[in-house]
Design goal:
The protein has 130 residues and is of the alpha+beta class. The protein is built from two helices and ten strands. Strands 5-1-8-7 form a four-stranded mixed β-sheet, sandwiched between helices. A hairpin with an 8-residue loop joins strand 7 (61-69) and strand 8 (78-85).
Length: 130
């Protein structure tokens, strides 16, 4: 089981996706929890590292926990993604391993990982993603 935390940033019924250097798949921003970290600690650290902004930890609201086959891993390896919305300060900018940011819609689901496809469907069903 791969334990990850993701940030759901929505604008105009689109969700922010990130693409790492050398990859062709987009992922929701976030990453793996370090030992002893809470969901919000992981969210704040990962988003600062990837997008150069500061997530307001007090504004973090759970969206849900989603599981699927982990993209690029052996069959049977599951990723569990704990998702949150939260406000932030700063200007979004790709940093470290992130090469590209994109505002994605349901039509982009073939460009994202399996767990993100489930999350996209959930957001679409809630009327949050076009």
């Amino acid at each position: 089981m791969i334990d990850k935390v993701a940030w759901i940033l929505l604008r105009d019924k689109r969700v922010l996706g990130t693409r790492s250097k050398g990859k062709d798949t987009f992922y929701l921003p976030g990453g793996k929890r370090e030992p002893g970290e809470s969901d919000v600690d992981t969210l704040v650290r990962e988003i600062a590292e990837e997008l150069s902004v500061l997530v307001d930890r007090e504004s973090a609201v759970p969206v849900g926990v989603f599981e699927a086959q982990a993209h690029g891993h052996a069959s049977g390896t599951i990723v569990r993604m704990s998702c949150y919305t939260a406000s932030f300060s700063g200007n979004l900018a790709a940093a470290n391993e992130i090469e590209e940011l994109a505002w994605l819609t349901l039509a982009d689901r073939d460009r994202v990982s399996p767990v993100d496809r489930i999350i996209f469907a959930h957001l679409h069903e809630k009327g949050l993603l076009e």
